[in-house]
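A further point concerns the way the authors explain their paired sequence and structure data. Each protein is reduced to its one-letter sequence and a matching series of backbone shape codes. An entry of this sort, consisting of the sequence and the corresponding backbone structure tokens, reads as follows:
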Amino acid sequence: MKSTRIDESAMLVAPKPPTAGALRAPSPRHGLLAMAVAVGAVAPIGVAHAADWPSGFSKCADEGGTCKAGDTTRQVSFGVKDKWVIKSLKGNIACTSATFGGADPNPGKAEKCAVGPTGSPAPSPSPAPSPSPAPSPSPAPSPAPAGHSGGYAGQVTGGGSATPITVTTAAQMQAAIDAYSGTGGLVIRYAGTFDFGTIPDPCTQWKKAAGAVVEVKNKSNVTIEGVNGSAANFGLAIKAAATNIIIRNMTIGLLPGSIDAIGIEGQSGKFPGYVWIDHNTLFSSTAECSGAGDLEFDGLIDSKAGAHHITYSYNYLHDHHKVGLIGSSDSDASDRYITFHHNVYSNVGSRMPLQRAGYTHLYNNLYSKVLTSGANIRMGGYSLIEGNYFEQSQNPVTSRDSPSIGYWELRNNNVKSPADFATYGITWVASESSPSRDATDWKSTANFPVGIPYLYTVHDPACVKQKLPSVAGAGKNLATLSCN
């Protein structure tokens, strides 16, 4: 059984992928500033939904004019042709790029501003009543098409049809990136190998100097893909104004020193976005190394400092302490948008993800043997958690270890109520931090306050449990889940 969802206010015609510099990440959030970029959404074939502003909005000004939003805070869009930035504003608003954080959703085109209905801003963070599951649309649209990330990254093409460059080492990969102009398309195929059996004691790795990290920095339209059977002992980093990036089919493990397997990070006021991390196998070890504290290994998939519009899909993440954080500290909080779908987490400690602020959508993931905590939603963040399968896991949904809690909406997961905890091996250990909140009642604490601007298919959690491991990770020829 499966269902397909789309937020009705975001049924859009698919735009072209964002070009380098077209959009910047939202500036750091103050309160719950709701900024969303509707990019990469796809409407059902044969149904036209082209518009210069979101459904329910009304035009208030052309670019360069003044939009009169009134004394009540309302959502205001800036853009045309289904590519907009949305910000919560009030009063007389200059319809300019500067008002919307320097964004230019449609380069070379005059943008338009439109206001949403009164009461449209994101809600205050006080917990809202548990929502009823949203009904499936009728007729149900098709799932995301091939080439679409199935998440907030939208339609990410990477290097497209550029002639692949084959490399076998981190140095060769970095040289290919450095030689690339930054536009036009770059496809790198990694064919190197590494024998992880040469590391019999994983605790020797954290003592070493930081290993190699290949950087994609301020360059766009790049694909890095491993060939089947390849393996790497170096990290990958996407930095600054990099956009339209794909990393897939890479096997990365047991990294030396304190480095991320895949890290996405803004720098010098520039923010990477529209990044798709797909079908990778990432791991280290859950060994407790004497003298290491929590420094045995760093993150597998970390996003920091404004990184936005990212999709993590079909990755196999296993045997690791701290899987992935969003925001490097409690002050690193902005309205970023990140989707995690069809990932397998197995024998892992925590951070699936550790979310500070922003908005995440977690659907059809398999969480198996979570040792400490799973999705940890903090600092006023919101998460839509649906169609996942949880088993043998401690604190699978929680908010702890920050001065402000976060909020979640639970939809159609295998766990329906506390009565299911024993069946699926769900356990809880209360946090020593305050404030904190655990999903021990298995109820939503708030409605997810922003629309989902892409089509996605939610498979039955039982199918996720049964079939997802056979298609997630590297070496699976980019196979996807079928539950028919």
Q: What stands out?
A: The chain has three helices and 36 strands. Confidence is low (pLDDT under 50) at residues 6-50, 119-142. The CA atoms of residues 399 and 437 lie 5 Å apart.
